[in-house]
Design brief:
Two copies of one chain form a homodimer. The first copy, chain A, contains ten helices and 17 strands. The first copy, chain A, is an alpha+beta fold. In chain A, the strands form four sheets. Chain A has an eight-stranded mixed sheet, with helices on both faces. In chain A, strands 12-13-9-14 form a four-stranded antiparallel sheet. In chain A, strands 4-5-17 form a three-stranded antiparallel sheet. In chain A, a hairpin with an 8-residue loop joins strand 12 (about 220-230) and strand 13 (about 235-245). In chain A, helix 1 (about 10-15) packs across helix 3 (about 95-110) and helix 3 (about 95-110) packs parallel to helix 10 (about 335-350). Chain A is elongated and about 80 Å long. The interface of A and B includes residues 206, 228 and 240 of A. Strand 12 of chain A pairs antiparallel with strand 12 of chain B, so a sheet runs across the interface.
């Protein structure tokens, strides 16, 4: 199936949604994107697995990355796309084929942008990091990601969301000694030992640091708790799994140290973590972008791939159509006016005399 | 396979162990018991499912029940029986074919006891109450259980263990409101809400009431805890499953009320309960029995079927060979000197001029 890049971004969103591309099944949509862009003289198109990179090479002083993932979460009886007067509904409309459609339209119709642009259409974002096309490219061809600034077109309500908070998961473990519950004084109850862990979580005061004028909001929460052997046995282990969301002024190492400090005296096993991304709004390119697209920026609380650019030293923001709270929901949709607004703002910024 | 009741109780234990009788598979052993007893003129033998009842009817003033279950927990590569100089090893040696062998020997060899005896050999003790032969008999033929006193030949280290503590299981539930863990202030964490539940468990002071001279020892313990939806979601429910073991001076209703009081302010769901049994050592028949078999009685902390007799108003004790801590263990065994000692004591008590 081919993609026609001469249709408007709303129609293009619908066309992209109707190419099913659940993670692991991105070949068809990557082929369509590659073929549609390959015919354009002003772009240099390269393919890496099911990730497509298209670059303008006008020799501008500045280069910007515009990126979007082409995969979706699993089907949930929500295809094909359905359009009404306000919105397009269906799998991937919000997360994030609306943003991908805008990027494709701009790639196709702005042959001479005021900044060089690297368009990235990548696979495997909705699954483990090892399958993420952007991550893989950062490992194999980091040169291709070089830029002064990056825009990730994840849904952000058509307003810039800057940086992102980091995330860390850890198990806080208490141990005891098994015994028959009819003779409980002969054992040590590990679940009872977790009282202090939960008490510390209850008393925890999350930081709300202001960075580049944006107020982030941390959180430290139990997301799972488990323990128990049998209905008549004192449990010898209890695990409280906590998720720490940390503001961009903290590194992963600092976040780990913080969690260990909060649970000082307990056994702590770090499960996984991903770094935060600084909003970078003090960087001229980023500040100019926010100014150009409306002057407003909000902090991003959740984790997104902007952190991968941040790790490469590239300031990055989220800016795309759709309500981020609808991502991964069966009834996700993207408002048509978001698509129009984001495309107009982005186009104007790339057409301005910079 | 037949059973020869002229062999001694040690040999008979070994023979019984070698008739595999995992719960649900008691037909063969029940047949063997029934057939072995049916030929004895001094006993009236009745069969109910795989439960065998054998009664002397000498018109004595007093009647005593001597009971044992004939089923075992599942096979665990621990058959056939193996005998060494001190013990018999294998599935059901301790729990409780040693006790059953003694009861069968006494049934066969004491045609004219000083008290009438109702021997009960019942199935389904190691599984749910609805399959317990003693429970079923108490529902269908309670007259057959009528007695002044009951001896349950469960392993008790060859010393009388009197009464038993009750057991009650309940879930203490906290509720919250789901939210993405990156925006935790928009939700309510149900696991954090369980801190107070665990704190109360930690602070709990169990009672140790003295009843008929025996010190019982209660306990209130979390046996399971669970909660959690996903690694990035605030959980909206947490369950702490608690097990309350209560002394025989408390009824089930009082135990339920106590647990509700301890967790006042929380949602409490009662899962199941079983009543305690009073030691009943102030009843002359019981006191005389303790005196006759050695003068010592210990409190029983775990729950046993003595509670079923207690519920019928019949004082009951545990008195059998074997260490109760070995019950349900792969390497269970019964000491030969326990078998000899318990048989000798019981026989003497039934032969005395009462």
């Amino acid at each position: 199936m081919g993609l026609d890049l001469t249709v408007d971004a709303v129609q293009l969103t619908e066309d992209l949604v109707n190419i099913e591309s659940v993670s692991g099944n991105e070949r068809e949509i990557a082929d369509a994107v590659e073929n549609a862009l390959a015919g354009l003289d002003h772009l240099r198109v390269q393919r890496f697995g099911n990730t497509v990179v298209a670059r303008t090479e006008q020799g501008r002083d500045e280069r910007v990355v515009i990126a979007g993932h082409i995969d979706t979460v699993p089907l949930n009886a929500n295809l094909p796309a359905r359009k009404d007067e306000q919105s397009i509904h269906g799998l991937g409309t919000c997360d994030m084929k609306g943003g991908v459609a805008i990027a494709l339209r701009i790639a196709a119709t702005l042959p001479n942008p005021n900044r060089d642009v690297t368009f990235l259409f990548y696979d495997g974002e909705e699954v483990e990091a090892e399958r993420n096309g952007l991550f893989l490219l950062s490992q194999t061809d980091p040169d291709l990601l070089e830029a002064d600034f990056a825009i990730l077109m994840e849904p952000s309500d058509a307003v810039v969301e800057a940086g992102c908070q980091g995330t860390l998961r850890a198990d806080v473990i208490t141990r005891g000694e098994r015994a028959h519950s009819a003779r409980s004084w002969t054992g040590v109850n590990a679940i009872h030992g977790a009282a202090e862990v939960l008490t510390r979580l209850n008393a925890y005061e999350p930081r709300r640091p202001v960075i580049d004028g944006l107020e982030y909001h941390e959180g430290l929460n139990a997301v799972f708790v488990s323990g128990g052997v049998a209905g008549n046995v004192l449990p010898d282990e209890c695990r409280v799994s906590v998720n720490y969301r940390f503001a961009p002024d903290r590194s992963e190492d600092e976040a780990i140290a913080h969690v260990r400090e909060v649970f000082d005296g307990f056994e702590v096993e770090i499960s996984d973590s991903a770094p935060a991304a600084m909003p970078g709004l003090s960087v001229p390119a980023a500040a100019a972008f926010v100014e150009a697209v409306g002057g407003t920026a909000n902090p991003k609380f959740g984790w997104t791939d902007v952190a991968r650019f941040s790790a490469l030293g590239i300031p990055a923001v989220n800016f795309g159509p759709g309500d981020p709270h609808l991502a991964h929901k069966q009834d996700e949709f993207v408002p048509i006016d978001h698509i129009d607004e984001v495309e107009k703002r982005l186009r104007a910024w790339l057409e301005d005399e910079a």
